[in-house]
Amino acid sequence: MDESVIEIEVMYAAVDRQALLSVAVPEGSTVRAALLASGIGAEFAELDLATCPIGIFGKVIADADTRVVQAGDRIEIYRPLLADPKEVRRLRAAKAAETKARNQ
């Protein structure tokens, strides 16, 4: 019997380049299996596909080893933030307040 195949996409954006790969995987594949089948780990040696955060269409998934992909899914591999957005906003607000106080 012929195994059904579905099309998905795998996306990763490094600091200096990005990749969007179309991948055909067997129906019923897990997210982790689809990532390994995509070969994206070979393109980006710094990726640790076993531990990096992963999402589908912008929503982080908890367990890539059990979540089954659906046709048309876009698996996104996230890299760690370089700065905490809350801290950056706090520093920007403090700098703006300081500038405003100096100009009065």
Explain this structure to me?
- This protein is of the alpha+beta class.
- The protein has a single domain (5-103), classed as Roll (Ubiquitin-like (UB roll)), CATH 3.10.20.
- Helices cover 30% and strands 26% of the residues.
- The protein is built from 3 helices and 5 strands.
- It has helices spanning 31-38, 40-43, 85-103; strands at residues 5-13, 18-26, 54-56, 59-60, 74-77.
- A 5-stranded mixed β-sheet has the order 2-1-5-3-4, with helices on one face.
- Strand 1 and strand 2 (18-26) form a beta hairpin.
- The radius of gyration is 20 Å and the shape is elongated.
- It starts with a strand and ends with a helix.
- The model has no long low-confidence stretch (mean pLDDT 89).
In percent, how much strand structure appears in the residues? 25-35%
Q: Please trace the helix and strand order, writing H or E for each element.
A: EEHHEEEH
- Mean pLDDT reading: 89
Instruction: Name the CATH superfamily classification.
Output: Beta-grasp domain
Quickly give the CATH architecture: Roll
Count of all domains: 1
Tell how many strands the DSSP assignment holds. 5
Helix content: 25-40%
Measured between the Cα atoms of the first and last residue, the distance is: 79 Å
Task: State the secondary-structure class.
Answer: alpha+beta
Q: How would you characterize the largest beta sheet?
A: 5 strands, mixed
Strand order of the largest sheet: 2-1-5-3-4
Organism: Pseudomonas prosekii
InterPro entries: Mopterin_synth/thiamin_S_b, RnfH, RnfH_sf
Pfam families: Ub-RnfH
Protein name: UPF0125 protein CS076_07495
